[in-house]
Amino acid sequence: MAGSTDIVTVDVGGTHARFAIATIHTDGAIALGEPVTIHTETHASFQTAWEDFASQMGGTIPDQLAMAVAGPIKPDIIRFTNNPWIIRPPLIESKLGCTNHVIVNDFEAVAHAAARAPDEEFLHLAGPDEPFPEPGTISVLGPGTGLGVAYFYRRPDGSYRVQATEGGHGDFAPLDSIEDAILARLRKRHTRVSDERVVSGPAIVDIFHALAAIEGRAVRELSDVEIWTAGTDGSDSLAAAAVDRFCLALGSVAGDIALVQGAKGVVIAGGLGYRIRETIRASGFASRFTAKGRFAGLMATLPVKLITHPQPGLLGAAAAFAQTHLEEPQP
Fold first, then answer.
1. How many CB atoms lie within 10 A of CB 221?
2. Inter-axis angle of helices 237-261 and 177-187, nearest 10
3. 204-214 and 237-261 helices cross at what angle (nearest 10)?
4. What pLDDT does residue 2 have?
5. What are the φ/ψ torsions at residue 104 (nearest 5 degrees)?
6. Domains and CATH numbers, the chain
7. Measuring CA to CA, how many Å separate 3 from each of 9, 25, 27?
């Protein structure tokens, strides 16, 4: 890597697009400038949002782009579930005046961020309170609108490789009668119930109503935001029980993913995980993570941490750019 490189790094979601200037230094360290948040609904396209960001930066921005997008990466056209933008990768460089670019899935970017984050940017959740072992595989997952899952493999020389996955779409496996009831409720609407139907932000609504049905309660309709708020501030005992049940399911799923991926550690990521971090630590998350029968002893040796970097999507997109365009390719 010869000389430092400035790029624009972007994290595009359904509601917001976050932009920042990133400097990739010769030693591989990445420095992020102050992020600028742009509402997707106020811009007709990504190009007009790009032009708005350039204007806010004084009219001149770097001509290299790293982008994390909340959705599948397709070679010809990228569409978003919750915003009207369409991105055509083959046209990016000509339309935006870029010389180089890279586009990654948003959770692939988070895995890049986790691979680069120093020890002080992790919060211990379960298992031994020690740095992640090297070399080896580290699972990365995070509940949000869905359930993102990826992993990175760190090589003996310290370099790493990220693999995006669709691990959040594995089958949900209930462990007790309460989770049987949650599954039964979900099965009325979905032929197949995946993990993200239970371990995601919106899933708290179904958990809440399943618990209400078990107790024979009639409850008013609440949004997922209302349930999360009431469940974490202690103002509603049923909502609090739903949040605790969510943490149990998250522990189970995190343990399953670690087993499947042969992980030596696990990273929990995303804004939801960070907001309920103390609830996770006080819940049965850790016991569920290790409750894997004959492999309980192995699971107890895996450190589980939450990444606390404020902008992992921006950092991770920049890291993906560095790995793609600036670093020597690894086997």
1. 8
2. 90
3. 120
4. 56
5. -130, 155
6. 5-104 (3.30.420.40), 119-307 (3.40.367.20)
7. 18, 7, 9
pLDDT of residue 330: 65
Q: Please list the residues that pair with 171 across neighbouring strands.
A: 194
Q: Where are the alpha helices (DSSP H) in 6-133?
A: 46-56, 92-96, 106-116
Cβ contact 108:149 at 8 Å: no
Phi, psi of 32 (to 5 degrees): -100, 135
Distance CA 270, CA 313 (A): 9
Q: What is the pLDDT of residues 136-161, one digit of tens each?
A: 999 999 998 889 999 999 999 989 99
Distance CA 11, CA 17 (A): 6
Q: Would you call the peptide bond into 135 cis, given omega within 30 degrees of 0 as the criterion? A: yes
CA–CA gap between residue 258 and residue 37 (Å, rounded): 34
Eight-class DSSP state of 157: T
**What residues are paired with 219 via a beta bridge?**
none
H or E segment and range at residue 312: helix 312-321
